[in-house]
Amino acid sequence: MGYKLKLPHVGESVTEAVIGKWLKKTGDRVEKFDPIVEVVTDKVSMEFPAPEAGTLTKVLVDEGATVPMGTVIAEMELDDPSLAPPEEEEQAGGPPPEEPVDRVGRMVSGANVGPTGGVFADTTARRPAERPAAAAPPQARPGEPNLSERYSPVVVRLAAQQGIDLRTIKGTGLGGRITKQDVLAAAEKSRQGVAPETIQRAAEAAPARVQAAPGQPATETPAAAPADRLVEPSPVRKLIAARMVRSWNEIPHAWTVMEADVSGMVACRDTNKAEFQRQNGVDLTYVAFTLRAIARALRANELVNSTWDSGKIRIRGRVNIGVAVAAPQGLMVPVVHDADRLSISGAARALAPLVDRARNGRLTQDDVRDSTFTLNNTGALGSVWGKAIIAHPQAAILNTEAIVKRAVVLSGPGGDAIAIRPIMNLSLSFDHRVIDGAEAAAFLQDVKRGIESYAVDTGLDA
Amino acid sequence: MAVMTVLEAVRQAMLEEMRRDSRVFVMGEDIGARGGVFLATDGFLQEFGEQRVIDTPLAESSIAGIAIGAAVNGMRPIAEIEFADFVWPAMNQIVGEASRIRYGTNGNKFAPLVVRMPYGGGVRGGLYHSQTIDVVFAHQPGLIVIAPCTPYDAKGLLKAAIRADDPVVFLEHKRTYRLVRGEVPEEEYILPIGKADIKRAGSDMTVVSYGLMVHYCLEAARKLSDEGVEAEVVDLRTLAPVDRETFLESVRRTSKAMVVYEDNRTYGIGAEIAATIAQDAFHDLDAPVVRLAGPDVPAMAFAPPFEAEFMLSPEKIAAAMRDLAAY
Lengths: 462, 327
Known about the structure:
The structure holds two protein chains of two kinds.
Chain A: E1 3-6, E2 16-22, E3 29-30, E4 35-41, E5 44-49, E6 54-59, E7 66-68, E8 72-78, E9 106-107, H1 153-162, H2 180-210, H3 235-250, E10 253-261, H4 263-280, H5 286-300, E11 306-309, E12 312-315, E13 321-327, E14 330-332, E15 335-336, H6 344-359, E16 373-376, E17 396-412, E18 415-431, H7 437-452
Parallel strand pairs in A: 13-16, 16-17
Antiparallel strand pairs in A: 1-8, 2-4, 2-7, 3-6, 4-5, 6-8, 10-18, 11-12, 13-14, 13-15, 17-18
Helix pairs in contact in A: 1-2, 2-3, 5-6, 5-7
Chain B: E1 2-5, H1 6-20, E2 24-28, H2 44-48, E3 53-55, H3 60-72, E4 76-80, H4 91-97, H5 101-104, E5 114-119, H6 134-138, E6 144-146, H7 151-163, E7 168-173, H8 174-179, E8 180-184, E9 197-200, E10 205-209, H9 212-226, E11 231-235, E12 238-240, H10 244-254, E13 257-264, H11 269-280, E14 290-294, H12 304-310, H13 314-326
Parallel strand pairs in B: 2-3, 2-4, 4-5, 5-7, 6-7, 10-11, 10-13, 13-14
Antiparallel strand pairs in B: 1-8, 6-12, 9-11
Helix pairs in contact in B: 1-7, 3-4, 9-13, 10-11
């Protein structure tokens, strides 16, 4: 049977073409690509080429006739029938169904018009052969780099936002990489009540870093590398480590932050600083101001000044505020006892010798006893935002962060205005067993109000 | 709604603008008696006459230069460079002069011309009928560079280009001319210059492209959809000024990005898009930004296997999408 020469689908809205002049007659010998017939479509006149060498055996359409695209217009006997190009698949039941077309448009198959007219067989859209879709799970592919501990920017950001410990997640990406979807799935899981388990796992994972807790799977400890060295921690370091682990394991931490406008406090301190030093021989520190405000807020919000005690809440009768001090030998926390009874100057005078003894390693047992709440003046270190670990078994710890001048919007009777104000962030970590966000916020509001109430003329003995 | 090809949409846009505004005229090689090598101006000579449908000599520099002169003096010329591959002699006129007229005259003069250029490969065009020249113009401030890929966009944007008061390089991918059919409203409409278009919504990755490659990306995206990966396809439409917000907003959602362009890879549009994403969406990225483009060889060859090797295809794009999805 002869090879059928079919009018190609040249696409667009053209459904028919006019057959022009036959350039070969029945019985003519034709070489590959010899023009056989002129075809006029869409105002473009093309020469229809022979697909392979052979003999034209039948001409089926007269010159000048209008025929639908896809019509067989001639037949050929090919020299080598095995070279016959695959015929266009015939759609059962007439012409191929129109694909839906919208504004995005559709590519039409076979609309292969060359730059100056003429059709060609499109090979660009067909080659090369497609790689088969990877069936195996991504991390099983051989020769892949291990990316399980390489975190992308979005993964790091989301993990921090959602409070997810990445070491508790198994990555599904390339080389075991943790993907954004993995983090979102973990966050979703923890929202759906798997939270305790996640927190537990996170808590278990934490000691691995400080190399302390027994019973940790060996894989969680980093493998020794030649450049590493092992250092024996100081007794203080070990004690801190143990306390942090205990606090982190036992206390479900939650956090909240507020910012305080400390213009008045700064003005008050600046005005009185020199005279105070002359009279008392000690610095009038910002801690004295914040300590007083915190102590009074603790009095008014006694649940924050408490302890989770075997299923009961023990509200502490005294307000004893531990003040974290960075000392050469490690973190020291001397205690200002009955801080709610102190004025600003009283707090300054009480703090000075404690801080001095802490820095010189001369704190007494009494200096560190019976703390009910902790003030962590991280601002002295330049920190503006932090999430402290609660000093077990207290219910909360407050970071007073660095005082930073910021542009703030002030609302007044004349409308809004932008002013430069010194701002201090107050970051509270609290035991979520004891209080909820509402109580934490109420306490923090009281602290904020206390701090913002200071003015240049505030009496230091108040 | 009428369904037509990109070519017909281009033709209609010019026809309507010439009927609307007597300052609009067309000029170029073979555009009059022949009706244009692609027949984009077929019938124009009969309707508008020799004064407004001007056959020029084979001299691209003078085509651009005459258009600039006419534009500065109040006309709205549409100059056709028969193939973008032939534009190089006109570079000084377009890049050196047209782009700087408003700036150089302190805003006193401006050059509202449109230079239409059929460009792109995959049409068995060989070295001199396959080039992608976009990035050379997109790099030059003062030029608007538009590269639509659908009949709807082509018509709406060409009309906007003709009415714009600054020089526009209007790029029409030859392969899309007859390959792509789409709906075009009967009523008049104009599309905004400098606004990208999300051609397909998806949540797993953002694929930024333009021209013919948008359609290849869409086909690849349909394929990937069967495998459970949903790619968002952003069509830049305007290359300069480029609409950064649309693709940045998309990348911030999907966290993965790929730029697909037909041109040589190095120093291409992809570098600009990828750099913008790296700078402005860094904290939302979950994978390296991928550039998928042609190889760094001097030209697209005529031989079909070489052409196929140079050109991207839906299959090549789908493979790259698959890799990015698996990352």
